[in-house]
Task: structure prediction
Amino acid sequence: MRVPCSDAGAMLVAMGPGSWRPRARQRPRKTRAFVRWYDVAMIAAHRRTSVASPSAPAGMGASPFGRLIAIAFTATCELLRERVLRVLILFALLLIVMTLLLGELSVGQERRIVLDVGLGAMRVLGTVMAILMGGRLLEREIERRTIAVLLTKPVRRWEVIIGKFCGCALVLLVSVGIMTSVLVLILALVAPTWATELPLLLPVVFLLWLQFLLAAALAIAFSTFSTLTLSVIFALGVVLIGHASQEFLYWAEAVRSPALALLSRALYYGLPNLQHLNFTAAIVHQQKIAWSAIGMASAYAAVYLAMVLLLAAVLFHRREFP
Result:
């Protein structure tokens, strides 16, 4: 029921000064949910970490490590609610289970078929999963305009990049663990000596996880200045080139044009060579993998990860949001 202006004025006078307050503008539901998740994570991180040093900027609250935990926790919760992630994991598990049927059709080659097809399915779907998750982390918040809410919190921009990457890495680790468990179970059904395969399988799976981290980091870097579609296309293109980067070195030696040779060498040395992280052929053919080779491959991936995340942090720091 509407109150006449004179009666409304009389009511305000009767209630006294300061009794009326303008109604606060409500945030969108998704924005409120994001702020609630972040605040809960910040409180938990603040309780687990020490209080910020007196030299820290005013209002920074918890330590940088605590803020990284809060952002990673929020990113993990958001990714676990993604339906696309669940569908991809189920599809990967289905493909791995289908390797059991393919192994039954190849008499005497069950072990090789299970490992080859199973690890191949993990690589393809894991890469797609990593790129989609990395591209969606920032794009979702920019689309919902919750990124402005996050940046008003006591948090630095590079912490947003690193924290979201850590949350994505945790989800990828859980996904790889689930797929590896199913692959080992199927391998135990077709190969009596499956226990001897574990020392060879685990390093290969670890390097697969590093490949997924590189793909996710590339998607995050591209999403700092482009849309989801473009970031997915760019990251997928770099990953595909990374798996075929050895060909660029051959082209550089074969072509006669100095410009094409220079371009081929630049692509070979500038983009990550993901074949350095691919040891699937070694485990399929039961070849021993030296720990030094695994260490060199891990260091190679760590250097590229640091470079890509640094580039993502710089690009995100320079971007302006409305």
Confidence is low (pLDDT under 50) at residues 1-28, 30-61. The longest helix spans residues 110-144.
